[in-house]
Specification:
The complex is a heterodimer of chains A (306) and B (617). Chain A contains 9 helices and 10 strands. Chain A has 306 residues and is α/β, with parallel strands linked by helices. In chain A, α1 packs across α2. The relative contact order of chain A is 0.15. With 617 residues, chain B is α/β, with parallel strands linked by helices. In chain B, strands 7, 8, 9, 11, 12, 13, 15 and 16 form an 8-stranded antiparallel β-sheet that branches. In chain B, strands 2-3-1-4-5-6 form a 6-stranded mixed β-sheet, sandwiched between helices. In chain B, α8 packs across α14 and α10 runs parallel beside α11. Classes of the chains: A alpha/beta (306), B alpha/beta (617). At the A-B interface, α1, α2 and α6 of A face α2, α3, β2, α4 and β9 of B.
């Protein structure tokens, strides 16, 4: 990525990168104990890449945290661990299973059960136990209607809750992350990136991702208009059967609620072309968790979800 | 990749703003099928005929239930030519607060007017806020043209009325488009119903707006955000790395540039500039996030500002600003104390005075106002605990803006736009002249030559003056000795006498520089503090100040002794003589040092002229 020096203009991706880098540095300069939420999903991978660039030549000056539902794709967990090793990061795992075992949360039951909503409790416990004052998340405003109203620095009260009617005005690039002990802020450095920006950046910067994001053969079942993968967490309902197709994942969450799409896009170039032509949003296509109700995301965010 | 365009929308509930944005997204195919399907379901449930496009942008449940937009929402769409970010702000009571927020970073303000209603009070308010926030481009959409029979007369009537109001505001670029958001006329495609409108559709207009020259690329400003010191010795080399990270707020920086760090005033050079991830940059410009290495070991930290030696921002603890109050819980009152965030510097601020509250509908100034509450705008004087380094907001949106934060609740209370440093003198008011500095034929500055008696200052200054005048530049030499015959005849050589001498000469130089003249000062001016005050008083009125240290060793000056003064001082006939029984404090960071090794006064004059060449337009 090189700037056109004659007109002193940055390209769109350079502008977005500069804005994200500014946010990382601002948090590191003003907040005690930040942490970055890292799941191995593409947005968190891009976020980590930007953090590394922001502090070059120093290492990333904060730990990463993964809220592990225990129902993640094995390939993603393997990728997470490799990345942590390669970059010499300090990884903190907050486990949903621990909360279930301790009786803090009760697991949903039935064939469509998901631990998605439960992880809010684990996330907030992880933040509190580690005394994190600021937590970077990979959410983007183009993903979903409630996220379109989210601030870059988003204040959370002592219960970790988001109050959409009482957000701090955010002007220029002056970010107010002040909070009292026990409260924290969520920081979204990718706020202004779209799915296409993310993929264009992954292509231009040659960023490694879990293999799930590229086309591969896999056994899936069609359910509620989505393709769910055959993993040790998913089973068939009456009348369903596995079927092998060439697919890729547009988002990666729990195996229980993340669907894949039929695709032959085997590398970042092909994915960029596919995303540019896509007619369905990534969450709409592949996330059962957003389909709970029209306000599914808004309700979960108020509780303290990502 | 096309460049980004940030748009702030303004319009009230019934102007059809959400429908217009929905239309832009829908017709430019930025709406996905699942989003449209959801909208169609809801529209049918409400008994609408077609899809209600406004549902695409009304995000939160409360908004959908009440049918109003309650906050700033950000929308993204792209055409093959450009990516757009729309800050969509609502039009009801909270309007001012939200629009100010959305407008703070906008390149374009999109104002909606209902063709049936024409220019309303709120249209004026929208235009005023866009102008206050310094949005460089304003596009006025005269909407619902279908409801006025696509009338050209109606459109032109509204356009003229809006223009006459906008004349009173600072609106650099104003465009009008007749549209119908409901039917799509002139939104993405040119309208067949309005053949008399010969310009581009709204979308094509937005695609072509040129924003690159809206940035300030003249005044180099780099607020230090974060210091990067790896302290790693394992892989070698890095343990010496000390980088100053931040986002360039104005101008251009290149390796080799002379720079001054504020508030310390130390001058050094840029040794390298790095982009994110360690990409080496030859020219770093406004908007880029970079890491800068400086030559020499100097103490620089977050909140410091790096600029060019002859182009500094104002540095002051007292400033005048327009403030928009954003909080419904408290009000701004005189003597109240807040935390102020300005560039990367945080400090405390006290309200020194509320000059007036502005009625944003009539632009009437209420000087009897004693407070500012939610959505009110006023002009205030602030005093800060430590100096801020700022430019007027009109000149630089980054170094001219600030927010006020509640010390107890941490809420963001106000947005501020700096006008200028507070001008002092209780009983004398400053009159801005009818002619501004930019309107004069030439730009002036002050060149301050300091050094021991006999160092050759006056010879260099006289030579520079001669050459400047010969080349057609107005220049005037202020010689310390000569001035002591007239202006400063009443002053002696004590520390206080010298301080007053320096102050007076500084003021005269400032007047000359302001008038467009190159003021050349040749004055021993032995005390650093006195010279620094002159430098600061120039910075406060944005006049360049060039300090030249004529560094001739004492022995050589004494050997020359052109006026026989050293001999008399040695003989005890003169006391408090600089260099003999009174100290000379050499400049710590002069813009130029002239030494005998540089040659005779004529050669030294050429070095100084070369520096001036670079500084003057």
């Amino acid at each position: 990525m090189t700037a056109t020096t004659t007109t002193y203009e940055q390209t769109q991706l350079e502008l977005l990168e500069a804005e994200s880098v500014h946010i990382f540095r601002e948090v590191s300069a003003t907040q005690e104990k930040p942490a970055l939420l890292f799941s191995g999903g593409k947005d968190s991978v891009v976020m980590l890449h930007l953090a590394a660039k922001a502090f070059w030549p120093s290492p990333i000056p904060f730990p990463v945290m993964h809220v592990d539902t225990g129902e993640n794709f094995d390939e993603v967990i393997a990728f997470r661990d490799q990345t942590v090793d390669r970059m010499g990061l300090n990884l903190i795992i907050a486990s949903v299973q621990d909360d279930i075992d301790a009786g803090r949360i009760v697991e949903e039951i039935g064939p469509r059960a998901s631990r998605n909503r439960l992880q809010t409790v684990t996330l907030l416990r992880g933040i509190a136990e580690n005394h994190f004052g600021a937590v970077f998340g990979g959410a983007r405003r183009d993903e979903e209607k409630a996220r379109a109203k989210e601030r870059v620095f988003s204040f959370r009260d002592e219960f970790g809750q988001w109050d959409p009617r009482n957000q701090r005005p955010e002007l220029w690039n002056l970010y107010n992350g002040r909070h009292r002990k026990g409260e924290h802020i969520r920081v979204f450095p990718l706020s202004n990136w779209t799915e296409l920006d993310i993929w264009s950046y992954i292509r231009d910067e040659d960023i490694a991702l879990p293999p799930l994001y590229y086309a591969h053969r896999r056994e899936v079942v069609e359910r509620d208009g989505m393709l769910l993968a055959n993993t040790r967490f998913t089973g068939l309902l009456a009348g369903e059967s596995w079927l092998e197709v060439t697919v890729r994942f547009r988002t990666v969450g729990d195996a229980t609620c993340t669907g894949c799409v039929e695709s032959t896009a085997a590398d970042a170039d092909a994915v960029v072309a596919e995303v540019a032509a896509a007619r369905i949003t990534e969450r709409g296509a592949t996330r059962a968790d957003d389909r709970i109700s029209e306000a599914g995301m808004e309700d979960r965010k108020k509780e303290g979800y990502f | 990749m096309p460049a980004l365009l940030r748009i702030a929308t303004a319009g009230s509930v019934d102007d059809g703003k959400s429908t217009l944005i929905g239309r832009l997204l829908y017709d430019s195919k930025a709406i996905f099928e699942d989003q449209l399907a959801a909208v169609e379901v809801t529209s049918r449930a409400r008994g609408n005929d077609g899809p209600d496009l406004s549902l695409l942008t009304d995000g939160l449940r409360a908004e959908r239930e009440q049918g109003i937009t309650i906050d700033v929402a950000y929308r993204y769409f792209a055409t093959p030519k450009r990516k757009f970010i729309i800050a969509d702000t609502p039009g009801h009571i909270q309007y001012t607060r939200n629009m100010v927020t959305g407008a703070s970073t906008a390149d374009v303000g999109l104002i909606l007017i209902d063709a049936r209603n024409g220019v309303l009070e709120q249209s004026r308010r929208h235009a005023f806020l866009a102008s206050l926030l310094g949005i460089p481009h304003l596009v006025v959409c005269v909407n619902k043209m279908d409801l006025v029979g696509f009338s050209r007369e109606r459109f032109e009537e509204i356009r003229e009325e809006f223009r006459s109001f906008a004349m009173k505001l600072e609106v650099p670029d104003l465009t009008f488009v007749p549209v119908s958001a409901l039917t799509g006329d002139n939104v993405v495609q040119r309208s067949a119903a309005m053949p008399w409108y010969e310009h581009a559709s709204l979308l094509h207009l937005l695609e072509d707006i040129h924003v690159a020259s809206d940035r300030n690329l003249i005044d180099a400003r780099f607020p230090v955000q974060y210091v990067i010191r790896p302290r790693q010795t394992a892989d070698g080399g890095l343990h010496d790395f000390r980088g100053y990270a931040g986002t360039i707020a104005g101008g251009v920086f290149r390796p080799g540039d002379d720079v001054t760090v504020l508030p310390s005033g130390f001058t050094t050079t840029v040794s390298a500039v790095w982009g994110p991830g360690g990409r080496r940059i030859a020219e770093a410009f406004a908007g880029q996030a970079v890491t800068m290495e400086l030559a020499g070991q100097i103490d620089v930290g977050r909140g410091d500002l790096i600029c060019r030696p002859a182009n500094r921002p104002s540095s002051s603890q007292e400033l005048d600003a327009m403030v928009c109050w954003l909080s419904g819980e408290t009000a701004l009152t005189p003597n109240a104390r807040y935390t102020i965030q300005h560039t990367t510097r945080d400090t405390k601020a006290v309200v020194n005075g509320l000059e007036y509250r502005l009625d944003i509908n009539t632009l009437h100034r209420d000087e009897a106002a004693s407070s500012l509450s939610l959505n009110e705008i006023g002009r205030v004087k602030l005093r800060t605990h430590v100096p801020l380094h700022f430019d007027p907001y009109r000149r630089n949106r980054q170094t001219g803006s600030f927010i006020l934060v509640d010390e107890a609740t941490n809420s963001t209370l106000a947005a501020g736009m700096i006008l200028r440093p507070t001008q002092h003198d209780a009983n004398v008011t400053w009159h801005d002249g009818a002619v501004s500095r930019h309107e004069r034929a030439t730009r002036g500055l002050t060149v301050w030559l300091t050094g021991l008696s006999g160092s050759g200052k006056s010879s260099v200054a006289a030579e520079v003056e001669r050459k400047l005048v010969a080349s057609g530049r107005p220049a005037y030499l202020l010689d310390g000795d000569n001035l002591r015959h007239g202006l400063n005849a009443d002053l002696g050589f004590s520390a206080s006498g010298r301080a007053e001498n320096v102050r007076r000469v500084g003021e005269v130089a400032k007047l000359l520089a302001d008038a467009g003249v190159i003021a050349l000062v040749s004055l021993v001016s032995p005390y650093r503090g006195d010279r620094d005050k002159v430098r600061e008083s120039h910075a406060a009125v944005e006049l360049p100040f060039v300090e030249v240290f004529v560094d001739t060793p004492l022995e050589m000056c004494e050997a020359r002794d052109p006026k026989g003064l050293y001999a008399r001082a040695r003989a005890g006939q003169i006391i408090q003589f600089t260099g003999i029984d009174d100290p000379y404090e050499a400049p710590l960071s002069p813009n130029l040092v002239l030494r005998p090794s540089d040659g005779d006064p004529s050669a030294q004059a050429d070095l100084l002229l070369a520096l001036l060449e670079r500084l003057l337009p």
